[in-house]
Amino acid sequence: MLVSLTVGKVDAGVAVLLTQDNRLIEFPSVLLPSNITSGSIVDITVARNQTAEAASATAFQTLQKRILNTYGIKTPAPPVLRLRNATQTSLVLEWDPIDLATASIKSLSLYRNGSKAGSIPRPLETRSTKISGLAIHTEYTFHLVLRTTAGTYQSEKLTCRTHKMTDLSGITVTPGVLPPQQKDALAAALDRIGGKLIDSVRIDTTHFVCTEGRGPLWEKAVEMNIPVVVPEWVDACESEGTIVSVRGYYLNADPKARQLGPIHGSTQHQRTTSTATSSAPRPSTQPKPSQDGSQALPEPPITPFPGAGQSGQPTAEERELESDEDDQSPPPPPPKDDDEEVAEPSVNGHAEQNGDKPSDTEVPAEKVEKDGNDSAEAVDKPDEKEEDSSSSESKNGKGREGEGDFNEVPL
Questions:
Q1: Which PANTHER family match (predicted)?
Q2: Domain 81-161 class?
Q3: For 32-91, what is the HEC assignment?
Q4: Overall fold of domain 172-268
């Protein structure tokens, strides 16, 4: 198509062209010939370029598809929140890695019971969090809110409940330096109460059990402020059937500071009572010689005591001499065998009173008669006998034992 136009004015960069129906068209002057002036007539041919139009349409569609596939199909995924471990006062929550697609993250926040509990630090690296200071046996609702450049995404609400004091399934123990037998016993005890034994120190580790404070695991537990206790704490929880305070079971704690429950308390009370009973002074069953001596002496025994020679008590011959002193004359000196039996209690019971030298083996008749008279006077005067027994008791401790044994002879 050919169009004739009249140049009306040529200005810097722009030329004003007039059509036959007096319409003005601004046209770039650089596209006109160089010798054009006002009043010149130029012919302009206008035609449609189909090839260029098709190429442009193809390029535009390709760009549209690329944008759609990159930003329109793959979008950030909402977080998936779940419960990892629960105790009486804490909950450990974890979630899958954050899928941002091509977007950039702005923040990741945790909400508890509809209120914001806090923001997760380093959301692209952190995959779990621990909420402490919760109430015992209480229900809570949690959810995550992910804010990105592609929009805001929210996870499903998670409802969980803290444990009762008698629920020990939340105990997660990491063992430290322990003997093999003690470690096996610890694993068996945790299996019985429903606890878990893990080899590494993690965010869900509730207690670190060891007998010596050393090693990288112990250092990490101390850094994470995890209670370091002895294996006896697990045994106490098992026997009590509830969570026991760790104050008395720390690695360097005094065992006396342990707070025992009713089971341990009764056992400890029984041990204390038995110890006090065994350590208390027992009342002496041996009668006092000052009070019973005067009562036992007037009653002569009927039968001789078989162990008189070994226990330091008077022999049967001496008792017969004392009982028949008034009616019979003094017997002749006893034979040699009898003299030894008579001399033996005198050496054991009264030899130390007279001095370091024991009495002679032979007993003369005058001495026997004198002993008989003394016994008769003791029967008539118990008060004087009591004074004699107390004086002999002060001289030698064995005299008291001899008199006590004599008083306990069955009649």
A1: CHITIN BIOSYNTHESIS PROTEIN CHS5
A2: mainly beta
A3: CCCCCCCCCEEEEECCCCHHHHHHHHHHHHHHHHHHHHHHHHCCCCCCCEEEEEECCCCE
A4: Rossmann fold (3.40.50)
The Cα angle at residue 122 between residues 120 and 124, in degrees rounded to 5: 105
What is the C-alpha R_g of the chain? 57
Q: How far apart are CA 56 and CA 336, in angstroms?
A: 151
Instruction: Report the amino acid identity of residue 6.
Output: T
Query: What's the gap between Cα 363 and its chain centre?
Result: 78
Structure tokens at 98: 């954050």
DSSP 177: B
* 47-74 confidence digits (pLDDT tens): 889 999 999 999 999 999 999 988 888 8
Q: Does residue 342 sit in helix, strand or coil?
A: helix
CB 76 within 8 A of CB 150: yes
pTM: 0.53
Backbone angles phi, psi at 111, to 5 degrees: -115, 135
3-state secondary structure of 132: coil
Distance, in Å, from the CA atom of 294 to the CA atom of 323, rounded to the nearest integer, reads 15
| Mean pLDDT taken over the chain | 75
**Per-residue tokens: 392:** 């002999």
Cα(348)–Cα(287) distance, rounded to whole angstroms? 20
pLDDT in tens, 316-342: 444 444 444 444 555 666 655 544 444
Q: Is 401 left (phi over 0), alpha (psi -120 to 50) or beta?
A: alpha
In this prediction, residue 143 has a pLDDT band, given cuts at 50, 70 and 90, of very high
Q: Tokens for 237?
A: 């929880």
